[in-house]
Amino acid sequence: MFARVVECGGFLSASKKFGIPKSTLSRRISNLEKRLNVRLIQRSTRNLMVTDIGKEYYQYCLQMISTAEKAECLIINKSEKPTGKIKLTCSNILLDLGLTEVLAKFMLQYPKVNLHVKIFNRNVDIISEGYDLSLKLIADEPKNSNLVMRRICAVPTAFMVAPSATIQYQSINTPEDLSSLPTVGWLSTHLQAAWTFQQADREVKINNESRMVCDDIRLIKESIVKGVGVGCLPLKLARQELLDGSLKTLLDDWTLEQHKIVAFYPSRQGLPPSVRALIDFIVDELAE
Known about the structure:
- Belongs to the LysR transcriptional regulatory family.
- The structure is a single chain.
- This protein is α+β, with helices and mostly antiparallel strands.
- 37% of the residues lie in helices and 26% in strands.
- It has helices at 2-8, 11-18, 22-36, 52-79, 92-109, 217-226, 239-244, 273-286; strands at 41-43, 48-50, 84-90, 113-119, 133-138, 148-155, 157-161, 184-186, 193-199, 202-208, 212-214, 231-234, 248-250, 255-256, 259-265.
- Helix 1 (2-8) crosses helix 2 and helix 5 (92-109) crosses helix 8.
- The chain is elongated.
């Protein structure tokens, strides 16, 4: 009440603006001054003057009010049922890594939310293109990004071969040995696939001109299974083939560069409850 009286420049103005009786304001601030044992306001019939200590106290009051308002917004955002439209973009590999089922479950749990999903295998400027959220599979975190990034989960991968193929993979003991084998890999501008292997303190990067490159992980997987070449696949995507023996991992003593699923969005402030709920839901469903 003290802050509102100072803000309005008097008891009468504050009374009219906030609907609190003038007598109540005067009595409550007098009680405040007695409790603090200081004079915050010098009163007269025409003027109201804030004392020096009152001015300092007022600044703290503003901080208290601001913090209280933020706390209320937090509760409202947490308790509100998410509604409205979310514009989401993601790469197609995420659909094969479980995102399809996750989005369907989210829609069932939040019936008042509408999802507009666009699949891109390119960098998307979500601010200029009008998207609320972008989900990606990345290895290296972007530098100098003006977006907020939240890590969702790691995606373990391994180099794989079809044992039934005619590929002579038995002599592959180091990443450098891959140069003797046909490979399939993710599409890049130079029609090359690049993999980074680590073992203890040693790191080896392999650039291989693959027999086939594409931006669809299903085609890469099918090509490896059919024996077109060896290549890297997420373990989750090849779980059944590894169990039934149609695929086998290579270079098990080496660790491939860690990939992870991340969410990008413009800002933490003002994030709609629906978008926040979707991000939290995806994290809960896909996290390790």
